[in-house]
Amino acid sequence: MSILVSPQKRKKLLKKLLISIQNHESAIIEALQNDFKKPPFETYITEINYVISDLKHTISNVENWSKPKRVWPSILNFPSSDYIYTEPYGRVLIIAPWNYPFQLAMCPLIAAIAAGNTIVLKPSELTFNTSQLITKIVEEVFDVKEVVVVHGGAEFTQSLLEKRWDYIFFTGSVFVGKIVAQAAAINLTPYTLELGGKNPCIVDEGADLEIAVKRIVWGKFINAGQTCIAPDYILVQGKEKYNFVELLKKEIIRVYGENPEESKDFARIINSKNWHRLNEMIDHTKVLFGGITNENEKYISPTLLDEPSLNSEVMKDEIFGPILPIISYHDENDLENIISKYEKPLALYVFTNDKKFAERMIAKFTFGGGCVNDCMVHFSNHRLPFGGVGYSGIGAYHGKLGFDSFSHQKAIVKKPNWGDNPIRYAPYKNKLNFIKKVLSWL
Ligand code: NAD
Known about the structure:
Blueprint: H1 7-23, H2 25-36, H3 40-66, E1 69-71, E2 81-88, E3 91-95, H4 103-114, E4 118-122, H5 128-141, E5 147-149, H6 154-161, E6 167-171, H7 174-186, E7 191-194, E8 200-203, H8 209-221, E9 233-237, H9 241-256, H10 272-281, E10 287-289, E11 293-294, E12 299-300, E13 303-306, E14 323-329, H11 332-339, E15 347-351, H12 355-364, E16 369-372, E17 393-394, H13 400-405, E18 407-414, H14 432-441
Parallel strand pairs: 3-4, 3-6, 4-5, 6-7, 8-9, 8-15, 9-14, 13-14, 15-16
Antiparallel strand pairs: 1-2, 2-18, 7-17, 10-13, 11-12
Helix pairs in contact: 1-3, 1-5, 2-3, 2-5, 3-4, 8-9
């Protein structure tokens, strides 16, 4: 049985965590600056404030979420009162990625604590400063029997996966997601996989291009494009392409200046391996804008690529960097042919003034979640599930859904000892026709 049985104790721990994070605000900003020059504004909005707001919401609701919920009883059990009890799974392993290293370690941790689990948390080895700070915060707040932070790379993570867990929560690539799923299968361990994918961003004929480019440039180049729900590639209606591209170029210059390398608002690529991976994706014969790189600085400028082939390097896998392919389409068949070529994405975005077109896109394609006339912002509503489908993930979290992901739901029927109906008991002789009649009325 978990040692965090009492919802009051969980709430107390979460409050302590909130204070500790608030006290370390400037250290978090500094750690992310040192890890990949993440701009302080972006760290505040996407890491610190996001986690704080998730914590406050969870603190306000944890006791209520933990209570048994009464549901309508079945007439077949009359008289009875029926409940759903939630209980923690037990010992949980959380594995986090590097791209939002604080938020993507802390938010699953908050949900797992709220649900009453004990946790081993493995942050990314690629963000040394943030991962060390996470250890410091966790050690300040939790007893080692409640939460432990461990550090290591691929081999170490695999050794963790060999152990038996009651739940595994993984955020990262599809490749490692499959390793996690295979390891979980050995002990039939339940899991959540928060993965990535190629997220299409459709710009329809007649869309408001001025607002579309603002929101796309923000969504694509925040965190230097290293965001699982960033628009991966643009599908723009052919007639709008010229104006759209010209506005995109202007907006990138307005936001990051003529030389984004000098901008304090543009992050770096996490490591050399990823810098090389991205550098190879830039086909210089296709560059519409940008295409400037600096290996020493792990810098890749915001780059627009013109009509790359669907079989080219940049269109094979998730880009996960500041490179944006622009592909034109003519009709909905083109959209279907292109989007369906890839696995189900984590996100899909539609910029349009045609509500029916937006509804058709939502209905036609399967994807984790998305927006109409914006990108990424579905992430910020804790009332919406956040998760993928197919290759982009299994399960979802955020808000109450996070609590649910880390809880086992027990069905309980409570019966009094009066009103015992003898019909269900053998011998069944002469009861069949009667029961058929009764059941047909219900
Ligand atoms: P990754 O899969 O390389 O690493 C994630 C975690 O797995 C790390 O803690 C790492 O130490 C561990 N790991 C790495 N290789 C391993 C191996 N061979 N065996 C066992 N464990 C291993 O992912 P990443 O590079 O840290 O993050 C980028 C990926 O994460 C992208 O694909 C992105 O789309 C995805 N992502 C998804 C979400 C989401 O919420 N759906 C959020 C952020 C990132």
